[in-house]
Design brief:
22-stranded mixed beta sheet; 2 helices; elongated; mainly beta; 13-stranded mixed beta sheet
Length: about 525
């Protein structure tokens, strides 16, 4: 496994790099190395991290998805009667257990109702397994185990349906024993244009104890515990991944090795329904492209550092929607902010893309600092006064983009004095019900923003390039609105004036982020 640079390098490069030219697939793949150009799964905005960068920061490169069809070894799975191509010394069939012991490309078809696929290759071996209509279940443990290899590639053949299903209780529950329907101790890549259904009845659905790259594929995961886990890193390049998890949905959790524990969403689609965190990284979570939807969670996105530079992200949470927090202590510029709150080494940085949050707890929450310099951030925040649509322990710096954060009036956090883009704070006096159109118009009567609430709201903080510092704006409720993610333009016909505000003048915030006079 190659040495990785700091996890922060991926986040930094996600802010500045466009997608490089994709490698052309070889004889049998018919799919590009990053965007899966022949796949119908690609959605969302163009991925932002280049192929060469990913090759440096992960185990993945374009050669992983190119091979000579003539080199394939065919394996036919059948209960008590699995067969392999003659002359293959790297394959062993023992009852309903098929073991691969050397590098190569293996094409598997057929089914095992109580079987197991095992990869026990050398530490420098790359093992490519093509699932070509393969269905494997196991009643006592994991049906697919990568015990040893340098890298394992699971390729889903075009037009095929494949499945893996494990036991609800494992016979071996030791410390290093498998705990997932698709379990790998080596770096793992999943690719191809076929489909795969993974049922993790014991604990996890897909778990890689090194790095994990999802290059393409149509994959559905249902897991009793975590859905998809890449210990060192978890990367989504393309494909369509649907995750239902009894704990966390999609995550990287290495909390001991420097430069590990990061997540990158770079393209494709990810849909998560999780009982705990939707998408989680121990260190940095970067969303650079694609479409990510967290339909259910306690906390939607969680990491020490969260970067949104592209893509379309929608988060629904019972607690915080976006939460920069973790186990690190305060460092560097840490200490206490003006409100007496501890400012740790945590951050949320939005430079592009579209981020929509619907949270019962804090909407966008950083236990350190936060910045917005591009993109669109829409927060449908809490109705209870003990949480806020924006909650930043340190400084909230807004220099670009569009921000609309609605919620209760009990903990209102506004942009800090380092911001260069102006905004307005709208206090409605009392809560307005869900579905209310809130409009902000300039002195000429032109609507500069229209926002439709998804739940009761008593406060709105709005910032965009259309707001001019020191200018007066009139706030209305009612009328009509044409919006995307509840934010857009509107008409004042039938609207009711509720007051006026001056751009850049904020009331003192009652939350921890600090308020008072601004730019």
């Amino acid at each position: 496994m190659k040495k990785l640079r700091s996890y922060l390098s991926v986040a930094a490069l996600a802010l500045s790099l466009g997608l490089a030219g994709c490698a052309t697939a070889g004889t049998t793949t018919g799919v590009s190395a990053v965007t899966g150009s022949s796949s119908t799964a690609t959605t969302g905005t163009t991925a932002a991290v280049a192929v060469d960068t990913l090759a440096e920061d992960t185990h993945f490169d374009s050669n992983d998805l190119t091979w000579d069809a003539a080199s394939e070894v065919a394996v036919t799975l059948a209960d008590g009667a699995s067969t392999v191509a003659p002359g293959s010394d790297s394959l062993k069939v023992d009852g309903d257990t098929v073991t691969i012991s050397a590098a190569g490309t293996y094409r598997l078809s057929g089914s095992l109702t109580n079987g197991r696929l095992v990869v026990a290759a050398g530490e420098k071996d790359t093992v490519r397994i093509i699932l070509d209509g393969a269905r494997v279940s196991n009643s006592s443990g994991s049906p697919f185990m990568v015990q040893s290899a340098d890298e394992a590639i699971v390729y889903l053949a075009d037009g095929t349906t494949n499945s893996l299903s494990d036991a609800s209780s494992y016979a071996d529950q030791g410390t290093d024993a498998p705990n997932a329907a698709l379990y790998s101790k080596a770096d793992l890549t999943i690719a191809g244009t076929g489909s795969l259904a993974v049922d993790g009845n014991f604990k996890d659905g897909i778990s890689a104890k090194d790095g994990l790259v999802l290059a393409s594929g149509h994959v559905t995961v249902k897991a009793a515990d975590d859905g998809i886990v890449g210990k060192d890193y978890a990367v989504l390049l393309d494909g369509a991944y649907q995750v239902t998890a009894g704990d966390d949905g999609f995550k990287s959790d290495n909390d001991t090795d420097e430069g590990r524990g990061w997540v990158l969403l770079n393209g494709g689609t990810l849909n998560v329904s999780a009982a705990d965190d939707g998408v989680k990284a121990y260190n940095t979570l970067t969303i650079a492209g694609g479409t990510a939807t967290v339909a259910k969670s306690e906390e939607g996105l969680e990491a020490q550092h969260i970067v949104v530079s592209g893509g379309t992200t929608t988060v629904t949470s019972n607690d915080d929607g976006v939460n920069a927090s973790g186990a690190s202590s305060s460092s560097g510029g840490g200490g206490m902010d003006g409100g007496g709150m501890e400012v740790g080494d945590y951050s949320v940085d939005v430079t592009g893309g579209a981020l929509t949050i619907n949270a019962q707890g804090d909407g966008l929450d950083s236990n350190g600092n936060a910045s917005i310099s591009g993109g669109t951030v829409v927060v449908n925040g809490p109705t209870a006064s003990n949480n806020g649509a924006l909650d930043v322990n340190g400084k909230l710096k807004v220099t670009g983009g569009t921000v609309a954060a609605a919620g209760s009036s009990g903990m209102v956090v506004t942009p800090g004095d380092s911001s260069t883009q102006s905004g307005v704070q709208v206090a409605l006096g009392s809560s307005v019900p869900a579905g209310t159109v809130i409009q902000v118009a300039d002195s000429s009567g032109k609507v500069v923003a229209a926002f439709t609430t998804t739940k009761a709201a008593a406060s709105l903080v709005f910032s965009s390039p259309d707001i001019a510092k020191g200018q007066q704006y009139t706030v209305y409720t009612g009328g009509t609105a044409t919006t995307t993610a509840r934010l857009g333009g509107g008409s004042l016909d039938g609207a009711k004036q509720v007051g006026t505000v001056t751009a850049g003048q904020y009331t003192a915030a009652q939350g921890p982020g600090g308020g008072g006079p601004r730019w």
